[in-house]
Amino acid sequence: MNIILFGPPGAGKGTQAQFIVKKYNYFQLSTGNLLRKEINQKTQIGQEIENLISKGDFVPDAIVDKLLRQSIINLKFRDRIIFDGYPRNIFQAKNLGKILEKFDQNISLIIFLNVTREVIEKRIMGRMTCQKCHMSLNEFFNKDEIELHPCGKEHLVKRKDDNRETIISRYDTYMKTTKPVLDFYSKNKNFYEVDGNLKIEEITIKINDILRV
Fold first, then answer.
1. How far apart are CA 125 and CA 123, in angstroms?
2. How far apart are the C-alpha atoms of 140 and 192, rounded to whole Å?
3. Number of folded domains in the chain?
4. Could you tell me if residue 78 is inside a domain?
């Protein structure tokens, strides 16, 4: 089954997606990682993406749609995709449904991590991501894990857009644009809301219980 994992920037979607990937052999389709790959490869699209992100803006649907299709058509990920951070608006939600339907697939489960802005701010300000394995850690909460990180702590870096002003802008924009999407999906019997303010381990347990239903 394909899964959508919702939550504002810094909600812990990446961490929980990694849990699902490892435990259930899923493929994490993170729009954030797809966009950063373009940036790192310094493509023309990547330059445009970097400019938008640095201002706290979201990337146009047309760009995201193109990158998503390239992954969804890969047969080895069929019915084992967890969408991390997508869709963010009604257009994307309906478009994702059309893309999956074209390849005879659908969304089986929707999980929403509901987190307050105060908690988000603290999480993002300390967030570090490994350039090699894409694992996310927090300099405030994961000091031991950072020191013992298998790839080496020198590969853990902070994102340029992880600053307080940008965080507030992204959070407010997310909540404004995503509310209609949540209303759209909340009517689905397979929609679940999880308290994202809990500790990572507690959130993981709740998600695991949902996946076992």
1. 6
2. 29
3. 1
4. yes
